[in-house]
Amino acid sequence: MTDNWKLSRRSLLQGTAMGIGLVAAPSILGAQSPTKISFGHGAAPGNPRTIAAEKFAEIVKAKSGGAIEVTVAGSAQLGDDVAMLTSLRTGVLGISANSQGPASAVVPELAAFGLPFLFADASSAIKIVGGKLGDQLKPKFDAVGLVPLGFWDNGIRHITNSKRAINSPEDLKGLKIRTPADPATIDIFQALGAGTAQIAFSELYIALQQGVVDGQENPLTNIASAKLFEVNKYISMSAHKWESTPVLMSKAVWSRLDKKGQDIVMAAAAEAGSLQVKLSEDANAKLVNDFKANANVAVNSVDRDAFRKATASVFDKWQEKPFGAFVKDLRASVGA
């Protein structure tokens, strides 16, 4: 959702118009008229992220007795993820259910959540990154004008290609795999012996169709919604990495809420997050069955131990980064 890296004037004006409902009163809950906070995200209608954002708004309104109203704008109406991060940091936008890649540009440690084979499923991932490990990042977010409300699920990723089933790392050799411009993902596939190419997601279907690349990696929801299975027959359930959806709030907007308002917002994010993870897991389970029932698609499991061993060097490389201590703590938390 983050191929356009510039904040357009239109997006800025939209963000301002929908805005944060600035008020002069020191206590939001004591204001005469409802305080409006904008919540931007890039997901389409019906997506678990969209449903959870709307649930968040409902919870906040109910628990604040109508004193706080959250206006949700999805489908990148307020700009792409990078643009929304800028709007958060300037106080133009109130909240964003963002993406791990763009957010790691301001808090680099976030990219480590996408290291190989850390998490088997979203629930276990959320439990770890939303605990003490995630608490380590709060000062980092604070320094760039952001308040983390929690982490939602952005999917366990799997490999598809047009040539053959991928059972072991050796099966990737000689294949060119499209990856996003994400350092962890690129490192993973290079360690597995595949060639990599960075192509915009919007151009991926045609690139696969024309053979510019042989395969790609994405959550099942993206594989289904973009119909990538039409041009990539083989879906290998590698579950090679997980990515988070950081739910971030503008520090400027957060500071205008009193303690009660802050508690309401934080609790609503947790409750909506539980819903989002459940919806994502249900959708993934259904998609696995749908793909297996599709005669034109071949679904297979992989030798995860072999893949894990083949990508062990990625951890060594990342532990040499400036945030290497955080990578070590992350590995210890999951027993990797």
From TrEMBL:
Pfam families the record matches? DctP
Where do the TM regions start and end? none
Q: Which Gene3D superfamilies match?
A: Bacterial extracellular solute-binding protein, family 7
Principal cellular location given in the protein's record: other
Which UniProt keyword terms apply here? Signal, Transport
Domain of life the protein comes from = Bacteria
Q: Which residues form a coiled coil?
A: none
What does the record list as GO biological process?
transmembrane transport
Annotated Gene Ontology cellular component terms = outer membrane-bounded periplasmic space
Its subcellular locations are: Cell envelope
**NCBIfam families, alphabetized:** dctP, TRAP_S1
Task: Say which family it is in.
Answer: Belongs to the bacterial solute-binding protein 7 family.
User: By what name is this protein known?
Assistant: TRAP transporter substrate-binding protein
